[in-house]
Amino acid sequence: MQLPKPILKSGQTAKPGGELALLQTIRTRAAAIPSSRSRVRLGIGDDCALLRLKPGEELAITTDLSIEGRHFRLDWHPPESVGHRTLARGLSDLAAMGARPVAAFLSLGLPRELTVSSNGKPTWVDRFLDGLLALAAEHHIPLSGGDLAESPLAIADIVLTGAVPRGKALLRSGGKPGDRIYVTGSLGGAAAELAALTQSPQCFAQCTAASKAAPHLYPQPRIAQGLWLRKHRLASAAMDLSDGLSTDLTHLCEESGVAAEIDSTALPLGTGATQAMALEGGEDYELLFTAPASAKIPHKIAGVAITEIGRMRPTKKKQPRVTLLTEAGPQPLEPHGWEHFSAGDYT
Known about the structure:
By secondary structure, the protein is an alpha+beta fold. It has helices spanning about 20-30, 80-95, 125-140, 190-200, 200-205, 225-230, 245-255, 275-280, and strands spanning about 40, 50, 55-65, 100-110, 145-150, 155-165, 180-185, 235-240, 260-265, 285-290, 300, 305-315, 320-325, 330. Helix 2 runs parallel beside helix 3 (about 125-140) and helix 2 runs parallel beside helix 6.
């Protein structure tokens, strides 16, 4: 049964732990997030949600899948973190396009035991919603529908919609030779935190959904920074850093038809991060963007540091797409970040 459908018929009661009860819980909790009628005309309660955009806007749509054992582990990650990360992944995509969030749609596949309370404690899915809805409220994005199913594995699929002025979205394809390369925040912090937590898995359970200083468990999507870059028309190309700088910068270069060189000494390392973590770790959810050399990029945008790390250059035969400038001289920077369907461990 899909979330937008009617929850209960007249006189019908929801069985504790059943689908109808969970749907009712989600609908009630989602309604607590303030939403603008100008964006969501009709949310949960019908076969489809109805969204309304402003004149002259385009709809940006992104989807992200989170799977137990691949993106999170039930014995490691607090449910609040799983919920937060589920939404943060999609919000980061909207940030990279310079889009303002409009509505979220959540589909959950869950083992039954994650929906049932033990000893009167909140269920796993209740705590998952705590994390997801707290971040949704922070970014004023209403949960407007979705789907539920019983599943042998916990799976969360988030679909987000955003709005951007027609023809003004930030794209990966606009980088040009001579453009400077920038990143928001710091790099490698998520990989460093994950490495530390895997050495002491009990630390996962000690973290709370209120934590803002845990880049792996509670990444902060750069919505405000993406909106600023789009509004001021300074970025020539942009994307979010989810798979590691070496991989994501290669993608941006390929889409723009250019090459890049990165100054290894300029990389803003996160707490405990090594250069390898910054280049290959992934899940930082920072913004990677380019801008003309003449553009005046501030040192901070909405309180988040901006660092210039390199420049775009023309492609040349027999030269690497991305070069890392080191004290030992230029080195090819191969894309060794995260890639599904390739050999590798969690996550």
